Amino acid sequence: MTNLSFQDARDEAKEVEKWILVNIQDNSLFPCQALNRDIWKATEVKATVKENFVFLQMDRAGRDGKDYLRLYMANAVDDVALFASGTKAEDVFPHIAIIDPRTGEQVKVWADVPKKPLEFVMVLHEFLDRYSLKVDAKNPVQRMTKTKSSVADMTEDEMMQLAMQNSLGGTSTPPGATSDPDNLTKTGGSSSDVGDLMEFEDAQENLVDTSEKQESVFWRIRGDKHHAEPLNGPDVTRIQFKMSDGSRVVRKFLLKDRVERLFEYVKADLLPEHQEKRKSAADDKEDPLVGKEFELVSLGKKLIDHLEETIDEAGLKMGTVMVEVVD
Predict the structure, then answer these.
(1) Residues 6+ apart with CB under 8 A from 233
(2) Does a structural domain hold residue 196?
(3) pLDDT tens, 75-106?
């Protein structure tokens, strides 16, 4: 957690190429206290946040908290504004959002308070899989036209006008019904549809291995080694596998397992199970998955190039792996 002001945090985040994770608290509300107790203190959450974010936690009654609310949530800037909008504080706080330090834009907002550290970490990794602050990265594009300019591009007068419009009901989404901008980058804008995957074309173009070499390596990986999950322990991690249709599966592996073990699991278990589920769907006519070549991608890198590394060495602890079947 940093004690910087919001603007100073933006400057630092731009310099170190990290996202800004913002949490606005109301200490009189139990969910805010529970968030501190259950989420922010969790070891796995701390590790992910420290590695990828500049973390700002602000009190809604403090100066920095009020400045943030004026810019992004004018209807919740104080009790008077909340009352005028017909919203209760417990419907708004705690507020959690991810800010792009370059533009000041909210790129993700949590509509519900996270309850379990593991699930929260999975959501953070999913975000990091889809978004990047690298100059040459392609980030998801919103499928709906933005209705207001980026806060970073506004003058002080424009910010005040926006705040007034919000307080008068000028925004389509009241603070109690938080809208996640990230949903607009997914198919149909639905929060339940997580089918869109980050575009990896740029990263793939920079790989030094040839496709012929990768293909030969892939077919040497065994497809008959079924996976048995290890018991919980300090040397065990969970990995989330995401299919192109948006479905997700979480499985436990040993940190010392080689990355090749993930390919064996997908070949022997995940693809056959996924194919059976598709067959049970009404009138499924999609091509079979078993026996096809696939790629496993995490944070923009192809795991076929890291088969000899352990899951820990490859940075896959509590990670998300995209399963992309090659046509």
Answers:
(1) none
(2) no
(3) 888 888 888 888 888 888 999 999 999 989 99
